[in-house]
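ARCHIVE CARD
Drawer: 12
Card no.: 0347
Subject: one protein chain, sequence and derived structure
Cross-reference: see card 0346
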Amino acid sequence: MVRLAISVEGQTEEIFIQKLLVPYLQDRGIYAQPLLLGRHGGDVYLPRIKKDLNNLARSFDKVTTLYDFYGFKGKDQSENKATLEQKIVDCVAPSLREQIIPYVQMYEFEGLLFSSPEAIEDTIHQAGLEDWANGVLKKFNDNPEKINNSPQTAPSKILLDKSNYIKTVHGPEIARQIGLDVLREKCTGFDGWMSRLEALQE
């Protein structure tokens, strides 16, 4: 059994992992545990990440992350997913770096939910959301992980503007209704992360 810590930035991600990833990975011999960054979540920046991951790597076999690109503070304009993930690894003590599997979600967790506009409407119970979400997707070539106009119009913001979306209630439930298979089919970045986690059993 591989012991895996998943450092997350908020309760929405924590609940999502608990509902979907923990049972899925456990069936594959991987004991996963989501843990809020700094015990309280929020404020995703390198000094906090450094402290958390160095501690977690001493208590778990492997440590991975689920942080939103938009929520990552202190990044340069030229920063991208790959550079942030490298910085996550580099902030850990050299002797512990092999235990780290960095993952930054593009552009935030709520992007994954657009994998199924139908699930968005079914869960929030608001007529018209499916057509609206399909329209959003079309603007980004039907790729949920490219919904990225700006931090002000990120997936969570447009959901909040359009509906009575409650992050910790609706977010994990929409994802559960979609299911991991469809999330992975629609979101290649997320699928790549899941593949790396699955490989821990080998």
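Annotation on reverse: The two ends are 11 Å apart (CA to CA). The longest helix spans residues 11-26.
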